[in-house]
Each structure stands twice: as structure tokens, then as C-alpha cells.
């Protein structure tokens, strides 16, 4: 495996708050990584550190084998599309898109033109007149057409409607299969992007709680539903990720079940339901689905 990003003990403290806490990760080349976590978990801070926009308090970072801070050679290979990106307000969209290739050597103009048409971006409109979704679309166009070997999208969808979000996912996947590169996508809309992700990193209160292949993660938990006594008997000493119940019924999420265990559960009259990536993240970061959706 070739890692394009390597960190060791990476930590960022803001006074008494530790936003990124002892993070040791490797991002493999040419994969789509999901960086998931609740509000304030440390996602933006981690991406800012990896793109040389923040200084580490402690620990090491290597991006393409080098420290990214003020390193033009590294940063020309990196693109960071963030929700809060500010562009000069009096620029028209075409000016912003015209400037982007200067910073992004892999820029594909034909692809950019196609994306502008897809997202119906008004090229001659000033940035300050754009709607929230149109502003996000500008970032999406720069992030995709820039084709940086390492591209970070930090919640790029703010204000984008469902059609535009789907367009983003479709174009990302199509272009990624023709031009493989390393992508990190930070999002709350986990169910929407779950199928895109090849590797999943979950951060909670600055610490990495999951760093795993998406396929392994998808099969790593199951919800067992049935009469409380039957469920409890089946679950026994297994690791429980979440538990809910009404009256005599229980619904318990457990880590990995073997084929034999699945057969035993069915024979005991229990129902087994797959756990979505979003449900798993919700369980692992200790919140309820509703709370998580509210934070999205
Ligand atoms: N410049 C700063 N000074 C002080 N605290 C900060 C600063 N930047 C971030 N933080 C704090 O660090 C923590 C992590 O913030 P960060 O923006 O990385 O979270 P996030 O996971 O991106 O959240 P969200 O999903 O809400 O965007 C938060 O508690 C935040 O308030």
C-alpha cells in the first residue's frame, strides 16, 4: 500500500480544548475515504492540519512524504474544498473558475465546463449574488475539475438540493474511476455517501474511533430483534453496540456474527437486520439517530 498521508500522534490543542487528539492514521493512495463524526468532533481541524492550514501542537504529518506546512510542492497536489470557503465577493463566477487552474495544475477545463452546465452555474453572476447552493456548487466544480491527487471535501453540499447532491456523487464517482486520486469526504449525510466510500474514518472528540475498510465495516454489526428474553439469551456476553426496547421486545445491535450464529438466531425465532453505516457511526459515537440527524 502507498500512503499519501501519514500522521503519528497528531494533536491540536486550543487552550484547554483538544480538537485533534493523538491521531495516527494513513490514507491510502487512490481511494475514497469518508471522514465522519458529530459536530465539533475535529474533522475540519484534522483536514486543516493535513493541508498545512493549521499548525500541530504535537505529532507528525507527512503528505506525499513531506511536511505540508508552507510546502508549495506538496500543496500544489492538494485541494481543500470547505463549506466556509470565501471568494472575492465582486468576482464573477467565471473569474473564480478562471483563477483556479493557477493553483491546480491538473485542472481539466472541459470537465469544468460540463460541471458548470450540470449545476446550472451563472458564469457572469457575482459571487455575492449567488444562492447558498450555487456557492457550494462553485466549490464542487473546483474540487472535481481540479483533479488534485489529494482532494478534501469538507461538507461540500451545504444548500445543494437533492438533485445537485446526487449529481455531485455521480460526477465524483465517474471521474474518479477514470482519473483515480485520493479523496477525503467529510459529511453528516452518511447514508447518501455510504456506497461511495471505500475506507471509513470516524472521529469523536478528537480521537479516531474507527479506521476501517467500508466493506469490513458494513458486515461488522447486526441488529437482533425479538422477545426480550430470547434476545438477551442469544446476545449473552457478546459486545453490544446499542440497545433499544419497547415492552417485551428488544432490539440489540451486536458486533459481527458468524454464519452459524446467524442460523442459531433465526432458529431461535429472532430477526436479523443489517446495520447501515450511519447507524453504526451513531452507535459508536454514543448518540441516538434523532440527535445525529438533528446535528446534520
Ligand atoms: N480556532 C479555534 N479556536 C478554538 N477552538 C476551536 C478552533 N477551531 C475549532 N475549535 C474547536 O475544536 C473542536 C473541533 O472543531 P472542528 O471544526 O474541527 O469540528 P468538526 O468535526 O469539523 O465539526 P462540524 O461537523 O460541526 O463542522 C470544536 O470543539 C471547535 O469548537
UniProtKB/TrEMBL annotation:
InterPro entries for the chain: ABC_transporter-like_ATP-bd, P-loop_NTPase
Domain ABC transporter, chain residue ranges per copy: 5-230
Keywords per UniProt: ATP-binding, Nucleotide-binding
Molecular function GO labels: ATP binding; ATP hydrolysis activity
Keyword Nucleotide-binding: yes
PANTHER family: ABC TRANSPORTER, ATP-BINDING PROTEIN (PTHR43158:SF5), SKFA PEPTIDE EXPORT ATP-BINDING PROTEIN SKFE (PTHR43158)
Stated name of the protein: ABC transporter ATP-binding protein
Organism name: Schumannella soli
Amino acid at each position: 500500500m502507498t500512503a499519501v498521508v501519514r500522521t503519528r500522534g497528531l494533536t491540536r490543542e486550543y487552550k484547554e480544548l483538544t480538537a485533534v487528539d493523538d491521531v495516527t492514521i494513513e490514507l491510502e493512495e487512490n481511494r475514497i475515504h469518508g471522514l465522519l463524526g458529530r459536530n465539533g468532533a475535529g474533522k475540519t481541524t484534522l483536514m486543516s492540519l493535513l493541508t498545512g492550514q493549521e499548525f500541530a501542537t504535537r505529532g507528525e504529518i507527512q503528505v506525499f512524504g513531506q511536511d505540508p506546512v508552507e510546502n508549495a510542492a506538496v500543496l500544489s497536489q492538494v485541494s481543500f474544498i470547505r463549506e466556509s470557503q470565501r471568494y472575492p465577493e465582486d468576482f464573477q463566477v467565471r473569474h473564480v473558475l478562471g483563477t483556479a487552474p493557477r493553483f491546480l495544475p491538473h485542472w481539466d477545463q472541459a470537465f469544468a465546463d460540463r460541471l458548470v452546465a450540470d449545476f446550472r452555474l451563472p458564469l457572469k453572476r457575482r459571487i455575492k449574488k449567488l444562492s447558498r447552493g450555487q456557492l457550494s456548487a462553485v466549490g464542487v466544480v473546483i474540487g472535481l475539475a481540479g483533479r488534485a491527487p489529494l482532494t478534501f471535501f469538507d461538507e461540500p453540499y451545504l444548500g445543494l438540493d437533492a438533485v445537485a447532491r446526487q449529481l455531485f456523487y455521480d460526477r465524483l464517482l465517474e471521474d474518479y474511476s477514470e482519473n483515480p486520486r485520493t479523496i477525503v469526504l467529510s459529511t453528516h449525510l452518511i447514508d447518501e455517501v455510504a456506497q461511495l466510500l471505500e475506507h471509513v474514518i470516524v472521529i469523536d472528540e478528537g480521537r479516531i474511533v474507527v479506521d476501517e475498510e467500508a466493506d469490513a465495516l458494513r458486515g461488522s454489526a447486526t441488529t437482533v430483534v425479538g422477545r426480550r428474553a430470547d434476545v438477551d439469551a442469544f446476545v449473552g456476553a457478546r459486545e453490544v453496540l446499542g440497545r433499544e426496547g419497547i415492552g417485551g421486545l428488544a432490539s440489540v445491535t451486536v458486533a459481527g456474527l458468524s454464519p452459524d450464529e446467524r442460523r442459531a438466531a433465526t432458529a431461535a425465532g429472532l430477526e436479523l437486520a443489517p446495520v447501515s453505516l450511519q447507524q453504526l457511526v451513531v452507535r459508536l459515537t454514543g448518540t441516538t439517530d434523532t440527535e445525529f440527524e438533528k446535528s446534520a
